[in-house]
Design brief:
The chain is an alpha+beta fold and 308 residues long. The chain is built from 12 helices and 8 strands. Strands 1-2 form a two-stranded antiparallel ribbon. Strands 3-4 form a two-stranded antiparallel sheet.
């Protein structure tokens, strides 16, 4: 019987990319994109935690930057459409795929979700980290048998865009909604996908083109904010209310937080200082080890933590 609790301190990551509240937000966005990470904790030179600069924070920053550059330099020209920056190399899942296998597949490919497509190539929904967490919680508490992807996927059409959707529209969707990816459809068929990171990279490229700058590290000086203006520092855009967790909490505590909020990672704090970070993927990876078939015959109960 799998009844050993898993604690946050056992799965948290302690080697982290961090940023300072005084860093210029464009410099940090460029660093995050180069490192292929979606956000970073903000700490000062004493190691005290201040908040999180997330992809949503970065998109908020671009809204401010676009407004400023348009008022200073004029219109940014022709709109950029989804077809120009969407990712056409897709990983998709069939609706009848076992949910445990789907979680393992996402972890193996280091992706946070995938469109669900039937044999005719028609879009049915998205199986995301949130879908996976819903499955894990259901399996843990209800002790239900495993199910297929279709039972837990998000079939809502509010997250779908088409090839003519503009970058501005994509930015606003991501600023208002917790989605991690937007499937791009032509009719009922998936032709691409846009992640938040794709949108940020497109925003940075468009800004560089608009300012005729080949080097993104020169953009901060070209935008026109004075050195004394704190309007484009990390501290101005970071999320000061991001949910955090303590290292002595268990796995299911983190799973519930991730399922009930839009957070993708939780800073782990001890006495106001950053001790580490735990992500949705860390939780799913730990849960996945407990979901592996037991060698003994007969049903096995799943316990990810004490339920007391």
């Amino acid at each position: 019987m799998l009844n050993e609790s898993i604690w946050i301190r056992d799965i948290m990551v302690t080697s982290l990319v961090t940023v300072s509240p005084d860093d210029h937000v464009l410099d940090v966005i460029d660093r995050l994109l180069q490192a292929e990470i979606s956000g970073a904790p903000v700490i000062d030179n004493l190691g005290m935690y201040h908040g999180v600069l997330s992809e949503k924070s970065c998109l908020d920053a671009f809204s401010t930057i676009v407004e400023h550059t348009e008022s200073r330099c004029g219109s940014e020209g022709a709109p950029v459409h989804a077809s120009e920056f969407m990712n056409r190399r897709l990983v998709t899942l069939p609706p009848d795929m076992d949910a445990v296998k789907a979680i393992e597949y996402l972890l193996q490919h280091r992706i946070s979700g995938a469109p669900v497509v039937n044999k005719q190539g028609e879009y049915l929904g998205v199986f995301s980290e949130s879908s996976a967490l819903k499955f894990v919680i259901s399996l843990s508490y209800d002790q239900l048998p495993s199910s297929d992807v279709a039972a837990f996927m998000n079939a809502g059409r509010g997250r779908v865009v088409n090839e003519q959707t503009t970058l501005e529209r994509v930015r606003e969707i991501y600023r208002c909604e917790p989605h991690r990816r937007l499937p791009v459809l032509t009719g009922d068929r998936v032709v691409g996908q846009i992640s938040r990171r794709d949108a940020l990279r497109a925003e940075l490229t468009r800004l560089a083109n608009h300012l005729n700058s080949a080097a993104t590290d020169q953009l901060a000086n070209q935008i026109g904010f004075t050195d004394s203006d704190a309007g484009l520092t990390v501290g101005h855009f970071m999320d000061r209310t991001a949910v955090t967790i303590e290292p002595d909490k268990d796995l299911m505590s983190a799973a519930h937080i991730f399922f009930s909020t839009s957070a993708r990672r939780l800073p782990v704090l001890e006495n106001g200082k950053l001790a580490g970070q735990v992500s949705r993927r860390d939780v799913l990876r730990a849960a996945s080890t407990l979901l592996e078939p037991a060698p003994e015959d007969g049903p096995q109960a799943l316990y990810l933590s004490s339920l007391a």
